[in-house]
Amino acid sequence: MWKIHEFAQAAEITTAALAAYVEESQRGTGPVLSRRPPGDLAERLDLRRWMREGGMTPETYQEFLHGFLEAGTRMHHPSYLGHQTASPDFPAALAEFVHGATNNPVAIYEMGASAATVEFEVLRWMLDKVGFPSGEGVLTHGGSLANLTALLAARAHAVPDAFSGGVPRDLALLVPPSAHYSIARAAGIMGLGGRAVVPLDADRLGRIDIAALPAALDRLRRAGRRPMALVASAGATGTGLHDDLRGIGEFCAAHGVWLHVDAAHGASALLSERHRHLLDGIELADSVIWDAHKMLRTSALAAAVLVRRDGDLSKAFQQEASYLFYGDQEHDLLGRAVECTKSEMGLKIFLNLAWRGERGLGDHVAARYDTAHRFWELASQRPAFDCPYEPESNIVCFRYAPGGRDVDHIALREHLLTDGAFHVTSTELADVRHLRVAVMAPATDDKTLHSLLDTIERSPF
């Protein structure tokens, strides 16, 4: 049984430590990340002794927590411009704390009625925002699992008996080069294999060439293959750019092709009046995924799988388990998801909405997009920097080429990360390596952007 006094004391220590940690991070105090080797860090935190002997107390926990936080990556830091992972808001953190204590898995309604009901309402809200008023959905643990789940629904639509009878070899996925790697991974998991992933023609930035779609579909069908789904991006992981969803949606509707939109990152722009046009046509999709742990400021993971027609998601899974499936289970989510034990993800989204409102979260999205555009403006003004496109979201790709020289951008990124001053990522566009920033933290400002550009120009490259 819990020692309630010990829990309350440790919780108070945790709250104070995290408050100080976030405050320091938002001020930009110290490095944005630490990259100690795992062996050194395990020794410093004394992990093996603690696991072997136990005996941690609130006092020793306080010391451990200090070292643990110091060695992590500070998502609230102004210089965090790395991967597409949220600078989480505190209401979502409260939800994690509640779930950590209550542990109500929501796939089975009787295991957590309040948490499941919150998820139902959050999904209803997300379906409405996407334009699926008659659809259904589920929250799952991450965009990769969400893409897999949506494609399982597409497979069930194309081949209703595939779950029991196996996957026909003539199925194909039409996929642009900008698609997230999880699409190809899902094809492998589903038994389709890499042969099923058919690349679509795209422009130099990876966006689907709509004019080439009729020919692509004709080639596929003449080869005796069936399109299980066409995948579009909103926005693409590498660039933050958006496919033309309306044009693609109208094509898919006219030719009976399931359209799946990976809007893991970009769907949150639906909350911004100035940016929701980027998702124009998303309501024509058959399935959409939307990650809350990106621009809705929840901690990882919380991803929605949304389908336009009620029943399409439920058909993705067909299984028997006498200890779970029996009687009236209309409120269970188990039939829509891979997971049986599903965390209270909806609570994180709900509390952020309850505190900030749709308008507040939309303003967060718009502000991050504006900061990214500002970085593009500043970089474009410096002769040594090349930006291949004007950003549509909070993601900007750029190259540093002083005097036209070909700089090793992987080495340049490593240089920036060495002392933890900046966290940036890298990607390839048209087979050319670029640096990439994703503006996630509200603390990132003009001072940060100028400093990053100055630091690159002072680098030995």
From TrEMBL:
SUPFAM superfamilies: PLP-dependent transferases (SSF53383). Keywords: Decarboxylase, Lyase, Pyridoxal phosphate. One of its GO terms (molecular function) is pyridoxal phosphate binding. InterPro entries: PyrdxlP-dep_de-COase (IPR002129), PyrdxlP-dep_Trfase (IPR015424), PyrdxlP-dep_Trfase_major (IPR015421). Its cofactor is pyridoxal 5'-phosphate. Transmembrane segments: none annotated. One of its GO terms (biological process) is carboxylic acid metabolic process. One of its GO terms (cellular component) is cytoplasm. The modification N6-(pyridoxal phosphate)lysine is found at K294. Belongs to the group II decarboxylase family. This is L-2,4-diaminobutyrate decarboxylase. The lineage of its organism: Bacteria, Bacillati, Actinomycetota, Actinomycetes, Streptosporangiales.
